Amino acid sequence: MTQFPHQAKQATFIAAPIEDVYDTITAAGGWDAFFTSGMELDAVPGGKMVWRWKNWGPDSYSVEVPARVVEADRPRRFAFEWGSKLVSTVTFDLTSEFGGTVIRSTESGYPDTTEGRDHLLECAAGWGEALTLLKFYLEHGITYTAPNRKA
Questions:
Q1: 16, 74, 77, 116: which could join 110 in a potential S-S bond, CB 3.0 to 4.6 Å?
Q2: Topology classification of domain 8-140
Q3: Is the pLDDT of residue 23 over 90?
Q4: How does pLDDT run across 72-127, given as a tens digit for each residue?
Q5: Is the peptide bond before 5 cis (omega within 30 degrees of 0)?
Q6: 3-state helix vs strand vs coil in the chain, percent to 5
Q7: Dihedrals φ, ψ of 91, to 5°?
Q8: C-alpha torsion sign, points 47, 52, 57, 62
Q9: 10 Å Cβ neighbour count for 2?
Q10: Distance between first and last Cα of the chain
């Protein structure tokens, strides 16, 4: 099957040391603080990952996605393959710039099908959200607040 020839790319500046950014994106507790709920992560090449969202956001989104670490080069790069039916590769490249860190995400490898393109678009929006939440978390200590469904 032909791969979709385009990548989803996001980038943001975070006013934090590169090591702090890397350590956050390579720890389950780091992701759980601002983006996931109950993530598993063994941040070594070949390590198991399970991305989990439980009752996420206003639509109460719940999903679990298996993944495998393909590269862990502290503090410069972290990459993994994820998915069960459709598998893609996500790479985070980090550089020390502007007195902080620039983190760039790239996702590629989806098939050139309607379903593959739909997944890539959804993930592109999700990585934009994730990097923004990572910035708020590291710069201001803001963590995810679930909607109060009883209100």
A1: 116
A2: Alpha-D-Glucose-1,6-Bisphosphate; Chain A, domain 4 (3.30.530)
A3: yes
A4: 999 999 999 999 888 999 999 999 999 999 999 999 998 888 998 898 888 899 99
A5: no
A6: 30, 40, 35
A7: -125, 130
A8: positive
A9: 8
A10: 48
Using CA of residue 98, residue 12, residue 14, residue 90, what is the dihedral sign?
negative
Identity of residue 81: E
In the block, residue with structure tokens 């009883």: 150
Q: Hey, which residues does 48 pair with through a beta bridge?
A: 68
- What average pLDDT does this structure show over 57-86? 94
DSSP 24-84: HHT-HHHHHHHT-SS-EE--STT-EEEEEEEEETTTTEEEEEEEEEEEEETTTEEEEEE-S
- CA distance linking residue 38 with residue 73, whole number of Å: 24
Model pLDDT, residue 17: 98
**From CA 92, how far away is CA 124, in angstroms rounded?**
13
pTM: 0.93
Contact call for residues 4 and 111 (beta carbons, < 8 A): yes
DSSP code for 16: S
